[in-house]
Specification:
By secondary structure, the protein is of the alpha+beta class. The chain has 17 helices and twelve strands. It folds into two domains: 251 residues, no CATH class; 164 residues, no CATH class.
Length: 512
């Protein structure tokens, strides 16, 4: 059978690991911030499609962004005007389609996506079919003979200056970006209807290199009327390499959001429709806690159904006070067991700490001293009347209420708002404190009564500073599972039977 010591250590270990694990899960996977008032950036990317007047039927199709690692799509909004709007899914790519029989005036269509940059976010991305994203035909075979010869010369040169597909593509992009390009490159750039990206794509297709075009935008606040940045994604040895078309570097820009991944067109128009697609980016700073609350409410996890965020606001505010009590309890346990400060009652200081939070510290201490002082005087007089305990306590309660009422009226007349909050003081506890101090005064003298009363006040003040701390209040409400760690500490301290700090100080002369 396990010893009590082993059972205690097991319970402490289990509670600590459980509390820390739940907190870690909320921070890493639910994005609940550890620091209060932390702000996070929400990026709004707005795609605007400008359409010119047209008497014929208009159909416009645009690929939609998909979730990706590090970028979480929070929401999407569409402003289609009087266009018909549908969404289709083909080859793991979502496309939005707008249609109208006739466009009487120039119009604009807007599609806005709200993003949250999160380095821990892992998106359930469906791999786009490589075969579906290859170019349909060898474009070089359609060029004129001189252009084909230039392409062959260029490919031979790149082959001789590269070792594999990775270096081949890097060298090819570098040659097209040269300030003084070679003659073969100049010949290809003069082909009508071809762009630099289309030429590079055609040459890679001719070499049977598997690739995809990737289009995206950097998340920089204030960008307006921008085109998407095109990059190349090349597959070699079962790995994908991302190339910048500006400098051929194999890297992804910081805060780069991929809007379209694939060789299919970003925007498709049917009929005689003329469309202009532009993008803008706006950054907004939002409370990280607010974002986490919204995500937890929207999540479909049974674990999250028990979150305090799901409670009404009134109950949430109540729990913000209740969850501070364990902090006060830990302070009391440390001060009584390890330090050795004597108090009036075990957890009476916690209740006074909660009252001090409502009334402010200075006002609370003054009210505490005044009520206890007057209460002791009245209690001393009642003891001479030889009343029984129940009647005596009841009488003290009434006296305490009367004192609180008088203080509230006087403070209102004097314009002292803090004293008006005196109603937060626990009346029953005040009455019992007065009764116990009176008994101590009679049985053990005024010295012991003042020591325990003063000790209670000192611990209440210390607990007030701990419980009124912004960080503590935030942690206790947003990570209530850490109360398991506090419970483990209290259980661990509860086994301590050695000398208290006050006793060590007391026996210093004896040691000398």
């Amino acid at each position: 059978m396990m010893s009590s010591r082993f059972q205690l250590l097991f319970i402490v270990f289990f509670l600590t690991i459980s509390g820390l694990s739940l907190a870690f899960y909320k921070v890493v996977y639910l994005d609940v911030p550890l620091i209060p008032h932390q702000k996070r950036s929400l990026f709004a990317i707005t795609a605007s499609i400008e359409l010119q007047k047209n008497d014929n039927p208009i159909v416009v199709s645009m690929s939609l962004p998909q979730p990706q690692d590090g970028m979480q799509i929070v929401s999407s909004e569409v402003d289609s005007g009087d266009f018909g709007y549908t969404v289709s899914h083909e080859n793991n790519i979502y496309r939005a389609t707008w249609a109208k029989r006739e466009l009487e005036n120039n119009s604009k269509i807007f599609y806005k996506t709200i993003l949250l940059a999160d380095s821990f976010y892992k998106a359930p991305i469906e791999e786009v079919s490589v075969a579906a994203n290859k170019l349909k035909e060898d474009q070089i075979g359609l060029w004129e003979e001189s252009e084909q010869s230039a392409a062959k010369l260029l490919l031979d040169y790149v082959h001789s200056h590269s070792a594999d597909d990775v270096t081949f593509v890097a060298q090819l992009i570098t040659l097209f970006n040269s300030k003084q390009p070679m003659e073969a490159v100049n010949t290809l750039l003069q082909i009508k209807g071809e762009t630099k990206i289309s030429l590079i794509s055609a040459l890679m297709k001719h070499e049977n290199i598997v690739f995809r075009k990737l289009r995206g935008i950097e998340l920089i606040d204030g960008q307006k009327d921008r085109k998407l940045i095109t990059m190349l994604k090349v597959k070699s040895d079962d790995k994908w390499y991302l190339y910048s078309l500006k400098d051929a570097q194999i890297s992804k820009p910081d805060n780069f959001f991929v809007w379209h991944d694939g060789n299919s067109p970003l925007l498709i128009t049917k009929g005689e429709a003329k469309a202009k697609l532009r993008f803008s980016v706006t950054e907004t700073k939002v409370s990280a806690t607010k974002i986490a609350k919204n995500m937890i409410k929207e999540a479909n996890a049974e674990f999250l159904d028990f979150s305090l965020y799901t409670l009404p606001s009134l109950q949430q505010n109540a729990f913000k006070q209740i969850l501070l009590v364990p902090i006060g309890a830990l302070i009391v346990v440390i001060m009584r067991i390890l330090i050795g400060i004597r108090t009036m009652g075990t957890f009476m200081p916690i209740l006074f700490s909660l009252a001090f939070i409502q009334t402010t510290l200075i006002s609370g201490i003054l009210m505490f001293v005044v009520i206890i002082g007057i209460g002791l005087f009245v209690r001393g007089y009642l003891s001479r009347l030889r009343l029984l305990l129940v009647a005596r306590i009841s009488a003290v309660i009434i006296v305490v209420i009367a004192i609180m009422s008088i203080m509230s009226i006087v403070s209102y007349k004097l314009g002292l708002e803090d004293v008006l909050k005196i109603t937060f003081f626990p009346m029953i506890i005040l009455a019992w404190t007065i009764e116990r101090m009176s008994i101590l005064w009679e049985e053990e003298g005024s010295h012991e009564a003042l020591i325990q009363g003063g000790g209670s006040l000192i611990i209440a003040v210390i607990a007030y500073f701990a419980m009124d701390n912004v960080m503590v209040r935030y942690i206790t409400f947003n990570f209530p599972e850490l109360l398991l760690v506090i419970l483990a500490l209290i259980i661990l301290i509860g086994r301590y039977t050695g000398y208290r700090l006050s006793e060590l100080i007391r026996f210093v002369p004896l040691g000398k």
